[in-house]
Structure formats: C-alpha cells, structure tokens
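User: Here's a chain of 108 residues. Predict its fold as tokens.
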Amino acid sequence: MTLNRRLVVSMEDIKSVVLECLHCGVRMTFSPDAITAPCNCPNPTCNKFWAASHYPNAVGFGMRNTPAQIRLLEAIQAVRARDKEQKIERPNDPIGFRILMEFEEPSV
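Assistant: Prediction complete.
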C-alpha cells in the first residue's frame, strides 16, 4: 500500500510571496497583501530587467497585454482582500467558491 500525502492551502494560508531573479538567484520576499515587483533585480551587481513599473492597459480589455506573472501577483492581492471583506457570508455574492491549491508534500 502506498501512502500519498498532499498539502492543500487557501489564499489565506499564503504567508509570503518570493520573487527570485532568473539570472543571479537573489530573492525578495513580500507580504501577499503588498506585492510590488521591482523594475530591475535588486542585486546591484546583476540589475537585470524584471518587469515594467506599470502596465497602462492592465485594466479591462487591455489586460491581455499584461504578463501572466504580474496578473497573478495582482490576483493574489485582490482575492485576499476580497476574502478579508467577506468573512460574513453574503447570499447575493456572485462567487460561491474559494480557491484552494494542492501541492505534493515536500520530500525530505
């Protein structure tokens, strides 16, 4: 018999979001409620481009022009803020579910 263990987390369970440079490996850790991707790597010896400081078409129809990584960071913040506001169930809420993510348990 095989025993599989998995980890299920909700947006509330996220303690931090870590951004890691693809070039030098330096990491920045943010509160999931206040994520700001810098334009360049914070490592002064690397300073490689990370993301534009803003995406003018990021709202509505133009959102397709915004990179998926930036949209994900914005979505994490938006969902967590909404979840905090809705601790009391609202019968007319158009969203009747919450997002849970499942991960394999890390091997030791």
